[in-house]
Amino acid sequence: MAEKEKEELQLSQEGTFTELKDKELIEEVIERVVKKKGYEHIKANLPGYEQPTSFTNADDGNKLIPDVTAQRFGRKSYFEISIKNDQKQKVVNKWKLINGLAKAQDGKFHLIAPRGSFAFTKRICDEYNIDANIIKF
Predict the structure, then answer these.
(1) Scanning 43, 45, 106, 125, which has the fewest C-beta atoms within 10 Å of its C-beta?
(2) Over pLDDT 70: what percentage of the chain?
(3) Domain residue spans in the chain?
(4) Is the predicted pLDDT of residue 2 greater than 60, yes or no?
(5) Count of beta carbons in the 10 Å neighbourhood of residue 102
(6) Residue 22 contacts residue 46 (beta carbons within 8 Å)
(7) Which CATH number describes the domain made up of 3-136?
(8) What's residue 59's pLDDT?
(9) Which residues pair with 76 in a beta bridge?
(10) E-assigned strand segments in the chain
């Protein structure tokens, strides 16, 4: 990845407070999951895409940006790539907020779990009662 692309990705990722996600992984999720399932009006926290709406967590003031948002059948869905990391509470806060937004808008919350992150993702969803569609990737 070129240095400029890394810098742009770093800037677009500000506020997500999870580990920096690989640009290629987000693009692959958009192609293999989001577009394949027929979603439209795709926004992504990635250079070259319109950025999803950011939200500020009232508890700690952190800015939250979903990885990908899209619409299908008039309903908005949120897609978050779940990368196993040591920032569990921040991940939980972000997922709970996005899950609440999805429910309030009669939409869906999808967690994309790459190889090695499925158990981490499922454990957090079960422990904190986060209603998400977990997709193995």
Answers:
(1) 106
(2) 85
(3) 3-136
(4) no
(5) 22
(6) no
(7) 3.40.1350
(8) 73
(9) 71
(10) 40-44, 55-56, 63-64, 68-72, 75-81, 108-113, 133-136
Cβ proximity of 90 and 17 under 8 Å = yes
Distance of alpha carbon 24 from alpha carbon 97, whole angstroms: 26
**C-alpha to C-alpha distance for 96 and 59, rounded to whole angstroms:** 12
Q: For residue 20, what pLDDT is reported?
A: 54
Count of Cβ atoms closer than 10 Å to residue 70 Cβ: 24
pLDDT class of 21 with cuts at 50, 70, 90 = confident
- Quick check: 130 and 99 in contact, CB under 8 A? yes
> What predicted TM-score, i.e. pTM, was given to this entire model?
0.84
CB distance 114 to 137 below 8 Å? yes
On average, the pLDDT of the chain sits at 85
Sign of CA dihedral 120, 78, 99, 110: negative
For residues 15 and 75, the model is more confident at 75
Most distant CA pair in the chain, distance: 40
